[in-house]
Structure prediction request, 307 residues.
Amino acid sequence: MFQYHLLMRHPYIRHTFSAAGLSAKTIDIDGETAIHFWGPKSSPDPANPKPPLVFLHGFGPDAHWHWYPQVPFFAREFALYVPNLVFFGDSTTTSAERSEVFQAVSVGRLTQKLGVERYYVVGTSYRGFVAYHMAAMWPERVEKVVIASSAVNMRHRDNVEFLEERAKVMSREELMLPEKAAQLRGSLAIKIRGHGYMPDFLLNDIVRSMYSKNRNKKIELLEGLQIGKNDTVDHISPFRQDVFLVRGEHDQLFLLEKATELKKLLGEKTKLEVIKNTGSFASNRKSSPIQQNCVQVISWIHLITSS
Prediction:
């Protein structure tokens, strides 16, 4: 019942962001693309600047649904930026680009427009791909990166095996953009360990409220993914920054073995944290163990960076 509970709390979630000192804004970043995001209401205090932290959401509902449990905590220590990527929330573009690289460039341009020169990035699931590309393109700007429940080393054969063997669906759209209750139930079974039963009328309500907006454009985003198109990982090289990989022990979207391989590919500055007894997401909890672990990781990063 976790996601439906969120639906009922929509005004509260927005109030959580506002009470944490964030306001919603939309900025035209290049004449073609406008990014809607939550960011600090006031200018930074020169005497006590907070390190900027960019939260990137997963594929599905808008950004504020994913991170609202963490916002009050992190806003005390960080200058938070929580963008809706293109075709999520009120972020739009007239560009024909649809890849995760385009999404990364868009967020990068947003931070430049805002005058944010150096920052940390956290990305979950699909947005882990975006976080990876941001760190790869701008190592001088992205100081640390956390990639949770994501496999940027995914190969084409991994996609085929996942859809046919574990998800048992014909396409990624059925899993990531369900249109009916049965599809959403199957998606939850893959993503959430022990999610419990939800009746069709609740699932259909979630589909209408969270997955219907810009559905065709989001399908184009899935089709435009560059990661997973080939059976090689030649695009991955060791990072100069510290990288923190967070993965659920029973993650069925991105298997633990992929995280172990990715740790090696990204080099000696990469750490892997495995969360016991959880999948990609959690059910019936205030926040996901994946997200809770991100809290611990980023708090530790901030501690060692500022000491």
